[in-house]
Amino acid sequence: MQRTAKAVWDGDLKTGSGHLTTGSNVLSSTKYTFASRFEDGRETNPEELVAAAHAGCFTMAVTAELSRQGITPKQLTTSATVTLERVDNKPTIVGIALSLRAEVPGADKAVVAAAADGAKAGCVISRLVTVPVTLTTEIVV
After folding, report:
1. How many CB atoms lie within 10 A of CB 112?
2. Closest to 21 measured CA to CA, from 33, 34, 32
3. Within the chain, which residue ranges are assigned CATH 3.30.300.20?
4. Per-residue DSSP letter, 88
5. Closest CA to 46 of 120, 127, 121, 129
């Protein structure tokens, strides 16, 4: 299985702009700029897309872990925060923090927490990144 995306950039780094298009066209010529990456611009940026990918992947992985145990959550909500800092004077992702709110009526909190920990280690995006990935959970049973 392969998934695709394309980036196009016009102009110089600081005043130019680019757009991103995914193979599914969910993103279609979605604008990104220097300001949206490194300042407070309103367009998207690659780090935001990494956060979205990690949140989505992790949430599905928690669902899969729970399903293997016959547990169906009412709702799982994950926020992902990608931290970008300068390392050796180069912008570098230095960490990703996941925050899960799991509504799982009738479930054992320890079982849900173990599923979340397993998903953090095992989801595709977690395995892709080599920076520390942290997890906090709020489990509502």
Report:
1. 25
2. 32
3. 46-140
4. T
5. 129
Q: In CATH, what is the architecture of 46-140?
A: 2-Layer Sandwich (3.30)
At residue 11, the 3 state secondary structure works out as: coil
Sheet with 30-33, strands from edge to edge, namely 5-10, 17-22, 30-33
Q: Which residue has the tokens 């180069």?
A: 90
Per-residue pLDDT tens for 116-136? 999 999 999 999 999 999 999
- Dump the DSSP string for 18-75: EEEEETTSSSSSEEEEHHHHHS--SSB-HHHHHHHHHHHHHHHHHHHHHHHTT---SE
Q: pLDDT, tens digit, for every residue of 51-108? A: 999 999 999 999 999 999 999 999 999 999 999 999 999 999 999 999 999 999 999 9
- β-strand partners of 5: 22
> Coil, helix or strand for 16?
coil
Sign of CA dihedral 37, 136, 67, 121: positive
The one-letter amino acid at 64: A
- 111, containing H or E segment: helix 109-122
The model's pTM: 0.92
